[in-house]
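Researcher: I need the complex structure. Ligand is zinc ion. Inputs:
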Amino acid sequence: MKRTGGCQCGKVRYEVTGEPMQQVFCYCSDCQTRTGGDKWFGIWYHHDNFKFTGEVETKTFTRKGSSGHDVHQHYCPECGVTVCADITIGQFYTIAGPSFDDAESLEPKMAIFTASAPKWAVLPTTIPVFDTFPSNM
Ligand SMILES: [Zn+2]
Ligand SMILES: [Zn+2]
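Model: Output:
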């Protein structure tokens, strides 16, 4: 299975193969800051299954994740959309769900870091919800 997607202006493009590792709403404070909303909808693909294919290279902003390891956020230098973040400790990318060309086919399967969600957030009721991170991951 191959999927494609990209940023708002279309200069950053990517391609993934296989099935996602996870499909996650993340309510951590870093995701709120990045999105300007209550959560990030991330589709997780292992490094081996992801490649950039667009005409411009992303810019990156690096922060420390909750694990203390680097998270490299990749955004388009033209339109500013954060397409994905490289979770180095897990060797995967969390790709913005709405950036996929077939975004409608990808829905969230769990919610994490809901303890950090804003008070006004409407948490999902039809998928597993975790205060921080599921202990078996
Ligand atoms: Zn762009
Ligand atoms: Zn997050």
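Model: Summary of the prediction. Residues 16 and 50 are 5 Å apart (CA to CA).
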